[in-house]
Amino acid sequence: MMKIPENVDLKNMSSLVTHFPDMLGWFMPSEEILNICKMYHEEGIEGLCFVGMGGSSIVGQYISGLLDKDSHFPICVVRDYQLPSYITKGWVVIGVSYSGNTVETLSCLEQAEERGIRIITVTSGGKMQQDYHKYPMLLIHGGLQPRAALPLLLGAILPLSETLVGMNRTPINQIVEELTASAKTWGDWIQQPINVAKKLFQKIPIFIGAEYMRPVAYRAKCQMNENAKTMAFSSEIPESAHNEVEGFHDKAIENIVPVFLRHDNEIAQVSLKQDVMIGLYQDLGLNPISLRVHGDSRILNMLLMTHYLDTVSVEIASMRGVDAMSIERIAELKKRLSKSR
Ligand code: PA5
User: Fold this and answer.
1) Centroid of ligand 1 to alpha carbon of 282 (angstroms)
2) pTM value?
């Protein structure tokens, strides 16, 4: 495990977001764990299930978005207390909890253990580290906010998942370099994050993504909630063309801004649907924003857009004068729940 670089300010979300690209390379799983994953692949896998909540659940959604086109088995994410009954012995369950203490995640792991499922855990400590040390475990750097740790978690878990699926491994170092270079040229190929932050200030964005941009839209909604402390939503194409589109009525829509997350390799139907929806929303008097990343790499497109929107969320936090780091209500909720247990 690499040491966290000294210039990273762990107490400052803006610093953490600036280090998004290099954080992807902070943790490499050991050959020992990769060999276990190879063995699981050779034994046969019926499905891969990620269990985790909030900031720790998103990595599973990204992995599913990255690998589901090539995987021969389903990849799902459970954000709940109960594992669905179809997740049985032939599956692999990856439990992700940054703190290691999240009750829903621990509850699913308990059920996985009872069912004799192959378990892998990813945590920085807590009960998960204590109770699951007999299973393969990625013990990652502590001291971050779970949502800020997304690139760290992804850099650690992607090689495992690719090995489980039986795919070639993504060259993480190359992705780090490309992400770093792209962030330096924001303003040339996509408007500066501050410009989008200004358009979304005191508004309610709906981030809309298709295919592998769906988890990115969901992540953006969560970053607006937790970093900028503002209401935000996410939805997906083509589904939103069948319901959400009817919701834009009356005065209530004045503060809503649809934000389309796009890339150059959208399938033709999806591309057309988004063009038509943007035109329709403009006719309705809305001001939809279209953000587009260029290139054909799924992982780069996802991560570029994520890094960009994470930056937008901290810009909005600063405009609103709120602390992007704090999560007082989540902490309060967890405190109240633990008292009533
Ligand atoms: O962003 C957050 O702090 C939350 O969404 C947490 O990720 C969530 O409560 C789960 O905690 P953990 O990531 O420690 O399992």
Assistant:
1) 37
2) 0.96
